[in-house]
Amino acid sequence: MTSTAERLIETLRAEILALGQQGGVVTPSVYDTAQVLRYAPPVDPQPVIDWLLRQQHVDGGWGPEVMPLARHVPTLAAVLALLVSSDSPGSHDAAARGLDFLRRTAELWSFEQALPDDIPVAVELVLPRLLEDAAALGLELPQQPFRLLRTLGERRRGLIARMKLRAGTTPIHAWEAWGTQAEPAVVDSSKGVGNSPAATALWLHRRRESFPDGAQELRGAEEFLARASAATRTGIPGAVPTVWPIPGFELPWGLLALRSTGLLSHPALQDVLRPQWEQLQRGLKPEGMGMSDNFDVDGDITATTVALLANAGHEVDGRVLERYRREGLFITYSHELQPSLTTTAHGVLALAMLGQDASQPLRFLLEKRGHNGVWVGDKWHCSWLYATSQVMGALAQAGAAAELRASAEAMIALQRDDGGWGVGTASSASETAFAVHAMHGLRSAPGACGVAVRRALRKAAAWLTAWEAAPGAAETMWIGKELYGPVRVDRVFVLSAQLALELDRELLSR
User: pLDDT tens for residues 409-426?
Assistant: First the structure.
């Protein structure tokens, strides 16, 4: 074993042990941080104001440029926060440039018939509410482009109005966009509201107004926001993630990365994997598994967990998948209005692992493949590389070899000259890792396919080595209310890709 492989194994061991601990590590969110600044600011708000100002782009907007529709929520939230929280000329200038960005780009929401499936989480509730808040401040913004979004939001609000609300259910995650009274019933055992710092901040604000003497419950919400802030690792009080805690997401996705690179059976990882398998088994309940014990179960995490446990030889009841099957595909949450490509891919993976018929959802996946041979438009990640890697993993397990090779050829054709992959202006580490995961199983394929895959993986290995020497900031490509990064998940995907490539160095040289 090379010294590089030994170093990667030691680093990966530490990451595996950390999966799911302290609620997870997540990048800071402009939107949620802005909402905290508006409704539950830290004692000294200037550091978080300065952080918000540093996140603004030269075009005046906030949020990663790789997904234009995910920029309006953080931009408008930042504008509102800066206007009400700071009197400095710099903050008001930044807000003015943000408003100009919003006016220039509002037409991006002018869809004629239907909204795309891969819009930000709860944007149909959150953005109309922010627009109302802006109007209340006398800020003039275009309204017509958001007609379809408002219609979808009204439909969603109608569904919520008919539901019996419970803490930890999916509507509560966007409580700040529709909630009125700060009732204790929406607070879960984490002392937060819906795994959402934004929702918790507004609940805390309204609860303080109505019950200023409720010290214990107010302190609980304050402590939740402090823990959420710590999860960003920024050291800035008030800088919070867009979703937290996420241990039930972190752990299975970390193990999923190891599975797709063949590392779950690596001897040097078995002792650190053992307690994680036990934790995963405990987390899977008869109704499924969610991103935390405080939040609703979902089809994506449940299907992925079932697939992993079945793959590892653990006894698992596959009937838990039935509650998430709808008309030939798998849903993530009840009452969702847009389907998820990767949730269905993980459902196919689970069915195939259990030896059950996956033909119907498999047809759905194949029908969703784009003309260029890859999959785009997933609702949980903005990169086609993640979507394609997850679908290809499902195809491989379901025995669709011919389809798998065709997609590998398409992926190779889209590799950048530098050896990496990415949907933005440059290659990114996580996306290059997703490509490695997608094609890893084909590295020994006979004939031209195997040769082409090995060549592509060699180039990817060189790119990842160069990236490791000068890594950039944590990537934000997962779709929440805005784009975010589950830091440990992305880290394990990259590390496992690097280790797999290093262990395959001799094979890849052929």
Answer: 999 999 999 999 999 999
Amino acid at 194: G
Average pLDDT, the chain: 95
- Residue among 164, 220, 208, 156 at smallest CA distance from 182: 208
Is the domain of 179 the same as that of 292? no
How far is Cα 74 from Cα 157, in angstroms, rounded to an integer?
21
φ and ψ of 315, to 5 deg: -75, 130
Mean pLDDT calculated for residue range 216-238: 96
Is residue 291 domain-shared with residue 341, that is, in the same domain? yes
Say if strands 289-290 and 297-298 run parallel, antiparallel, or are unpaired.
antiparallel
Buried b (16+ CB within 10 A) or exposed e, 250-272: bbbbbbbbbbbbebbebeebeeb
505-510 long-range contacts, CB within 8 A, separation 24+: 505/2, 505/461, 507/443, 507/444, 507/454, 508/443, 508/454, 508/457, 508/458, 508/461, 509/458, 510/454
Strand partners, 176: none
pLDDT digits (tens, 9 = 90+) for 339-352: 789 999 999 999 99
Three-state SS string across 386-417, please?
HHHHHHHHHHHHHCCHHHHHHHHHHHHHCCCC
SS3 state at 22? helix
Please give the residue range of the domain that contains residue 353: 3-22+246-508
Which CA distances in Å does 506 have to 1, 12, 370, 401, 478? 11, 21, 34, 25, 34
How many structural domains is the chain composed of? 2
Check pLDDT > 80 for residue 464.
Answer: yes
Domain shared by 13 and 67, yes or no: no
Cα distance between residue 201 and residue 193, in whole Å: 9
Yes or no: say if 15 and 251 are a contact pair by the CB < 8 Å rule. no
